[in-house]
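Q: Joint fold for the lines below.
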Amino acid sequence: MNDSDDIVKEFLVESHENLDRLDRDLVDLEKHPSDKEILASIFRTIHTIKGTSGFLGFGKLEAVTHVGESLLARLRDGQLSLHPELTTALLAMVDAVRQMLARIEEAGNEGERDDQKLIATLTRLGQSASPPPTPAPEASSRAHLEPPLPESSPVELPPETAMPIPLDVSAAKVPVQELPRTVVELSPEPPAKPPEPPEASSPQPAAGQSASESTIRVDVGLLDQLMNLVGELVLARNQILQFTKHTEETGLVTAGQRLNLIASELQENVMKTRMQPIGNVWGRFPRTVRDVALACGKQVRIQMQGQETELDKTLIEAIKDPMTHLVRNAVDHGVESPDARRSAGKDPVGVLQLRAFHEGGQVNIEISDDGSGLNLAKVAQKAVQKGLISADQAARLSEREAANLVFLPGLSTAEKVTNDSGRGVGMDVVKTNIERIGGTVDLQSTPGKGTSVKIKIPLTLAIVPALMVTSAGERYAIPQVSLLELVGLDGEQARKGVEMIHGVPVYRLRGRLLPLVYLKQVLKTGPPESAVADDAPTLPEGGFERVNIVVLQADGRKFGLVVDEISDTEEIVVKPLGRHLKQISVYAGATIMGDGKVALIMDVLGLAQSSSIVAETHERARAEQEQARADGAEVQKLVLFSGRSGSRMAVPLSMLARLENIPGADVERSGNQWVTQYRGQILRLIRISHALEERRNLPDSNDILTLPTSANLQVLVLEDQGRSFGLVVNQILDIVESGSGPQSAPTRSGVLYSSVIAERVTELLDVAAILATGEPYEPIPARAASAARS
Amino acid sequence: MSETRQFCSFYLDHLLFGIESQKIQEVVAYRELRPVPLAPASVSGLMNLRGQVVVALELRRQLELAERPAAVVPVCLIVRAELGTVCLLADEVGNVIEVEEETFEPAPETLSPRLRSVILGVHKLEGQLMHVLDTDRACAIHAASLAAAG
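A: Joint structure:
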């Protein structure tokens, strides 16, 4: 019965495709109840499944689809009109069919099930709204089986084929030439119901809908194998190219180049075979949206753009669940109830928009709703409540940072827990899953306008660009998606650059502390961390000639990975590690290098987690906060700089975003201010000399309006409560720890206090007040207004 | 006439072992392995087998036998096991041995528990005993060593 197994298999594959379309069609139909074409398509799908299941002897499947078909036939003929209950019943039927198909796939039978209730509902619905008493649904369905769609070609049944077949040929999706053999084998089995006369005009099930001659179905396993072979070929090519570098023989060099070209093209094309349009995942969303919206009494319309955007099959699988979660979330929490929308002056029907497009070798997916947006204050408050961040951190959050708090584990802002979402798990899982495949998630929210989640994922996972590094004499590959930058420290810098905070090594990357992780220590291939006293900044592995830091990002956290050597980047073929090593989270796989040796691929997220960068960040933030409090907040890192007259001033390092050298020519005037274009934004520049009180009476309009004459301005980019601005200083001197020396009262406005720092009297600036005085013509606010924040 | 079975034999610490020959894909010469930090102790490293990355397991450690003397260069038995293709490191390969069912006897109770869990039994050959390995178990990583690897 091998042939029959094949038929069942084909039946399953085709039916699954058809069912996915059915969900979409039914939801579409609800919006356009009179669309004959959609109805015909639905009818055709159900009819096909019914026919084949009868043919293959799946009685229960046939019974369910049969009543469904009858119902649809009456819809199509206009004897019934669609209403939500009907749609729900039809969707329930689709679910039942799907369950049975899944069961057939697993166990080869439909399983024990009772569909009487569903059948009764469908039958009742089929009869209720019909004014004239109609003949038995069976009869009606057959009576109306005219050729529904001209576009699909009818099955041409050669007479000799049609003759001996007592079954419903119309629905068999077997290639015609195979029919006789198949049917002879099957015919001893009695059909589950009286055979219908063959309907020669029945349409061919439109499986691919596109021209069937130009496409074939290929086993994914075969494609994976092809992909592997191409990977091998690429490696062999790399080896050969290395040989040709040292040869004079032009013939070999030319052949090598040709091989190079062909292999690259082959690789590209084989990769393409694994590409699938993202619409395959989206196909189910109209149904999801409808169900969730119905369950929580909302009206939501779904809009899709870029369904044809393609990405690797494994990635499609990987984003399925996170995307479903986001869609559910958007409907459940994002879109408001129709009443609330009306009172907010919006269309009662909310819009959920899905957008996908390629950009820069990555796939961008956006899921946005036009709902109420996140209550950022509430999110931050919740995060503080749960101890995920400190109140102080919360006050300093930018809008964007606050919005992205929802990705923290254990944070849910939903007032009530619903069936579908809001159990406080989810968003963090979404984020982890997407980062696992090398993607990123970002959430943006505008109060009253809606929320938008942007996902970026790579096109494929099989071949990735990676940075090769060496640690303890072995090579490791670091996927480039997580790579931010490389820092090399030489000589003096190497000895002084790495500092210790409570035994944790850090490096000051442009003024910001970057936690360091030593690859040797993570992998336990190097000497264990020597006992380090807090006050004696010694390197964990002393005596480095050069410190190589690979700055990486995982889960939104930056950290530096210290390695022995950094080589160049290479395209590597990712090979699975096998089940023996799967549980070691720091590896993502292995690869074979050009010289035939094996290198391990690092999993950056796993690396961060195993070295506690990610998991304990919040803990540590809290611990540091407490530590600071215990110390009476006396020790604080300060950025030391000099003003125009050479006097010393300082601001807290925690406010410093970056140190920049801005060319004088880049400064522009906006109103009465200096501004510059900085990282795609307009950055306000405040001159320290203008901001402080003693100069308040000096600036005349000329001085303000004159653009800088010096070639370079030293600028501290400061961040305060989400606003950033540049403070133009004379010279940046150092980063120091504030002493516990005496603090004297401020000498002028804009200064918190004066203290002796590094043996010089230094004024600690009140950033908030300076920011307020940035506009020279505005009166200085009362000192009290400048919240003392040190 | 009873049924005969073919075993590929090999030595570990002067003991004769056998794996059913159908399970053995090939035997290859030892080549440099890529060590895997943090891996369980019996994982010797990764091997490039014609473009496939294969885990190499030290059979002596798997069976809790004495460590192999540095002078002995191991051989690689490429085995198809439940967990996929695995390379097992042995001291030396022997002949392909055909045995009859009668000579088989289950492992004696007195064997070390670890060894007994990996050995199906022994075939009594002329002059020596051949330990029959349970391939899947021999290729799996012992739970205890996994826990130790963390």
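Q: Anything notable?
A: Residues 4-149 of chain B form a domain with the OB fold (Dihydrolipoamide Acetyltransferase, E2P) fold (CATH 2.40.50.180). Helices of chain B lie at 59-62, 113-118, 135-139, 143-149.
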